[in-house]
Design brief:
By secondary structure, this protein is mainly alpha-helical. It has helices spanning 14-26, 49-60, 76-87, 99-112, 114-117, 135-159, and strands spanning 35-39, 66-70. The model has no long low-confidence stretch (mean pLDDT 88). This is DUF218 domain-containing protein.
């Protein structure tokens, strides 16, 4: 689960709480065990986003399974890079965020570790109509990032 800027050091913000709920509904109850990986450092607060995500999942949403944390990441690339050691032993990987941000994370994982990219499965982080007022913001923000990612990839290919 990818965190989002959380200026409050006491409680996860609304977007991070939504991401926790999406992550928890993405868990497959038919599996013997699930691992919840929370990722995100802190730029503005004293408590990393990963800690706030984990705290909300366990204390407020009742998750009792294994939780692993990446408390250092400050970008999506770092989120994916830093969680690789935390997910190498799992059979399925679900990246949870808003849909375009999760797509970006999946692309990064495929680029960094194609073998782990093969273990990716879709999360339940999209429900039609959910977070409807925020959808245009997420679309513009996410598409801008994907265009930038594509430009960077094209530049790298030209440099070869």
């Amino acid at each position: 689960m990818l965190g989002y800027r959380n200026k409050n050091a006491v409680r996860a913000n609304a977007l991070n709480r939504w991401r926790v709920r999406a992550a928890l509904r993405s868990l497959d109850p038919s599996l013997d065990r699930s691992v919840l990986v929370c990722s995100g450092g802190s730029r503005h607060a004293t408590v990393p986003e990963a800690v706030l995500l984990a705290r909300y999942a366990t204390a407020e949403r009742g998750f009792t399974g294994t939780v692993r944390l990446d408390e250092r990441s400050r970008s999506t690339w770092q989120n994916i890079e830093n969680v690789i050691p935390l997910v190498e032993d799992v059979d399925q990987i679900k990246i949870v965020s808003n849909p375009l941000h999760a797509l970006k994370g999946r692309l990064y994982l495929h680029r960094l570790r194609p073998d782990l990219g093969e273990r990716l499965v879709r999360a339940a982080d999209y429900r039609p109509g959910e977070a409807l007022p925020l959808t245009p913001f997420f679309a513009v923000y996410g598409l801008r990032d994907l265009v930038r990612l594509r430009r960077n990839r094209a530049a790298a290919l030209r440099a070869r």
